[in-house]
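tool_call predict_complex ligand=adenosine-5'-triphosphate
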Amino acid sequence: MKYFAILKDSMREARDSWILIGLFALSTLVIIFVAQLSFKPLSAEKTMGYFFPSDFQGPVIFQTLNNHKPEKMMVMRGWGNFRLNKVELIRGDADSPLSDYALTVSASDQRRFGFGPEPMIAHDEEKKGPGQEPKRPPVDRKAEAGEIRKLFEDAENLNFIKVGGIEPIAHGEDHKGLREYRVVVQGTPNTHRIWATELGLVFGLFPIEFISAPLAALMYNLATLVIKVGSWAAVLLGVVITAFFIPNMLRKGTIDLLLVKPISRSLLLSYKYLGGLTFIFLSTAYAIAGIWFVLGIRSGLWATGTLLLILTITFFFAILYAISTFVGVMTRSVVTSILLTVAAWIAFSSIGLTYTFVDMIERMEKEDDKMRQMMGQAERPQEKRWAGHWVLTAVRVIHAISPRTEDLNQLNDLIVYTDFMTGNLGDMNTFDNSKSVWWESLLVSAIWIGIFVGLASLWFYFKDY
Amino acid sequence: MPVLETTDLRKRYGRIEALGGVTLSVKEGEIYGLLGQNGAGKTTLIKVMLGITGGWEGDAFLLGEVAGTAHVRSRVGYLPEDHHFPDYHTGYSLLDFYGQLLGVSSATRAKRIPDMLEQVGIADRMHYKIRTYSKGMKQRVGIAQALMHRPEVIFLDEPTDGVDPVGRRDIRETLLELKKHGVTIFINSHLLGEVELICDRVAILRKGKMIREGDVATLTRQKGRFLIGLAPGQVLPVAEIRNLGYDATPLEDRWEVHLLDGQNIDAVVDYIRNKGLNLRHLVEKRQSLEDLFLETHEDQSTRRDKKRDRRDTVEPITAVEVHEEDRRS
Ligand SMILES: Nc1ncnc2c1ncn2[C@@H]1O[C@H](COP(=O)(O)OP(=O)(O)OP(=O)(O)O)[C@@H](O)[C@H]1O
Ligand SMILES: [Mg+2]
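tool_result ok
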């Protein structure tokens, strides 16, 4: 009851400052922007093409499904040398994700490099003399079929598609040197998530032809862009709005009137804190649910797990608001609260980013070790190693004990990603192999919230007004 | 049991001693006035009683609980000095907010708030933002919020600050009405005339110490000074009365008789009667509270400035009579 009274009071205060209206206007604009986007499914040819490497890069599907696994992406790999020649419908409607298709894939001896599942060193380069064909052992077609299957491996594991069979196609004499395979793929209820889709503006009136990708990837990139920028702006605005709450409450002549009410000081402050939080929760809920809803309507992909972002963004804000409350109680100054809160935010993000960087250096080093081993090179000398260096240890310790705002950002990213990809947040671990332990990040951050709010309460409790 | 009681109450703000051992007690249904110069510690005393400030020493009890206890505060109303209401509220929503914090049910609030605002005379503006209110209107809202939950004790710090004379009279009437219902009222004020009009008892604080306390009538009585008035045209034989050993001085149309120890005004009255004169007025002379206040101030200060002369100012006797009647009403 008293909590609702204080919440309502905070709402009234926020509404009075126009920033709240700004916040809702901003959210509404974003929702409207998303609502006018259109997602047009493209052909089966385009979709199946995503499984094969192009001249410039590895297969789109591989990149899509592994972009949260930096070390998998980092290593140079050979892709074999496969090309999709033809896609035939063998069952179901044309260009439907639920249909079965027969793909004609050709393999040639010309080699291409890119990023992919097999380390490049598997195909060691032989020196070619001018005009000389390299001497090769006869091709084992079964093994080659196995290599083609590898292109579908990640997608098959996640049930995005089923490979019905891969058969070599027999050719006559005149097709000397050409090896072709017939790959039967079957659509699953998940295939629509990786279906080639083209983005359009103003309800498809202006198709953007160069922006096409598997639907889930398209949506993920879009949603992260919108949510990252949006939540960043919303949290900043939220910090500004809520920074007024505590100093205004503590104003001389205002606080007396609250202190004489039959409510304890710690409760009063906690309610005020929760009030600010609820306020951010509601605006976040409005924005996220709005985006979720229009995206669902527009694309048919109901990424319900992304609604979890309402909680994680609110939690993120809770860390900042705890600092703002603490500073507000100590200094009773709005400007100081805003500046110190933003400074803390920058500091935590820097710690987080530095940690991510350090983490990446270590992974790369490990991959490098593996590579050296495979190629029979000498091990990297200890003094040239980063692992175990005191700077890294220091960064890791600081990261471990400070509020984990950056971890939360990464968690958000992973939630959005997983949810658009498979719609099942249980798959988060499949996509992510970062060392972050999410519950630990949340716990450490929650402890910091407790410390800041607790200190603020303590100060407030003993202060004479 | 007293509603409010302190024993040797002390409070320091760092090196400043705001209260230096105050002992007072306020009975139920009493209107108690606390006087004192700026910085005397009046506001501090209220803040201690309400738990706004802590770290005090001595004893302080409010409604039978140690001062500052949270749950007692629902039975207490408070109007602070220099209050600043959150100005994003309207008069109505502010009372609604405070009412919720005080635990007043929503049905009661819906009924009582308009009544309350009507009573303090701002009902027509109750749905306007407080930032559009004039100073006196804010003060009226302040009175309303202090009374809205029907408290048993009310603390008012400068309640009539900025309020026009009509409003001041209304507030006085409201307070006297509350007193009739047994509400205890504790007022800090510099407007001595007003305090005199409504307070039963007053205390004067000086630098955190209580220097006078008592009921208004007793404090303002000037022991042994009487004013005598005779029927028109008659003259009091001053010389003869002096001969009797009484100190008599003629004033404009009255006479002041100053009794010495052991003397009795009855002897003078008998003498007048025997002389065949007609007694029309006989009043024990009183000081105004302001005189008392200035006197106590000067008693304690080493400064002897010209204000000292005002000590002997005589309040017109009629005014004192009016006061007397007013208090009885
Ligand atoms: N929060 C505070 N911090 C430090 N000193 C204070 C504080 N509040 C009051 N004081 C000091 O305590 C003393 C008593 O102040 P108080 O406000 O009680 O006076 P007052 O009698 O109400 O004065 P006024 O008539 O001006 O309202 C003053 O010397 C004042 O400077
Ligand atoms: Mg004061």
